[in-house]
Amino acid sequence: MAKNELDLQMEDYQYLPLRDVVFRTLRQAILRGELKPGERLMEIRLANQLGVSRTPIREAIRMLELDGLVIMVPRKGAQVAQITEKDLNDVLEVRLGLEELAVKLACQRITESELQKLYQASRSFEQMLEESFKTIRNGEVVEGTVIDVKPDEIVLNIGYKSDGIITRNEYTNESNADLTTMVSVGDTMEAKVLKVNDGEGQVLLTYKRLAAEKGSKRLEEAFENKEVLTAKVSQVLDGGLCVVVDETRVFIPASLVSDSYEKDLSKYKDQEIQFVISEFNPKRRRIIGDRKQLLVEKKLEQQKELFAKIKVGDVMEGTVKNVTDFGAFIDLGGADGLLHISEMSWGRVENPKKVFTVGETVKVLIKEINGDKIALSLKFPEANPWLTAAEDFAVGNVVKGKVARMTDFGAFVELAPGVDALLHVSQISREHVAKPADVLSIGQEIEAKVVDFNGEDKKISLSMKALEAPAEEATEE
Length: 477
Description:
This protein is an alpha+beta fold and 477 residues long. It has helices spanning 18-31, 43-50, 54-66, 85-106, 112-132, 208-225, 292-309, 389-392, 471-476; strands spanning 70-73, 77-80, 141-150, 153-157, 164-167, 188-195, 203-206, 229-237, 240-245, 248-253, 272-281, 286-290, 315-323, 327-331, 336-340, 361-370, 373-377, 398-406, 410-416, 419-424, 445-454, 459-463.
């Protein structure tokens, strides 16, 4: 502020005390914008500029504070208060009118009607100041307009003599959030007063805590009404998942995340999930969510629909849910069916885990339905190898096969998937064989002649000896 910006108008106010002249000079400078909001009023500097002592400066500042045009800030002293352009115009109009009447009053040239006008104008001015500079209290909810945004701070005009400040920590739980990407100048928002004076003359506000209080109320209503909520997973912990609803944290234990055991919950990070509130106790800071309940209810509904439409003999598409040593569990969309190892192929399956993988899609045959249990099969009737076995393995045919297993009395040879034949120990060779294992091995490919076929009992007998020439004929040759 240049020295010549403030000049005492002594010729206009010769009849007033010096403090009043200083008061009017400073007030007009504020109302006309010559002194800007936030500018400090230094007594020594003002005394030098106006050519007066510090005493009338100090008294004038106190009068300005009563008018709401100046605020006292700890460790900084007097500062020009925030005031809107409309307030400036209104205050200027009223004050200038009062000044004119005051001059007449001081000169004893005022009529009774003018005195009444002075009284009413004074009351109007007081009322205007009261409305322009409202009082607020800690804990009060206020509404304001964003007038400035920094990466770590939001400044709100809340209609008070000081602006409201929302720090990053009081706006969001994200420690590194850039507030300029989340809030824009001109936005309106509600916030809660933490401190009317934060030590620097500003009002400290919180958006996050107010939102949490509203969120807590929202969750209480959802708990009472058994409402299904949707929220994004914000954190994956060893013991479960965390989601945030209106700035309020909800914990979903691992046991309530799914209807089946899941060792790794990391796949849920940043995913939107549905859940219900199963426990609400804000005093103990326990707000528990339950996703499993929804999955179980949905599965029961799907199960009901599934059993209403399926029957034995149907072919369905399912997804491999789990694989064990004895079989695989297939999700049919509402219920799981068991595909036993013996039903995985017309042939022999040694290890289901080498045949199926979790998540794989397969077509299965419904073999049996017993209550809520479903037995499945991959032995489709049209692929039954015994349908053509009578022709393929007729008596007298010479066939090839692999030794599948051996006993003391013979070896079982796989001629085709699902078709085994017995090679008796006495039919292995014209020479004496004590045990099949002495001359054969598992997996060995052999050639033999079909000597017996029983389609009804699904039994076939083979002979390797029948393909050998008699010993006498071999000697004569």
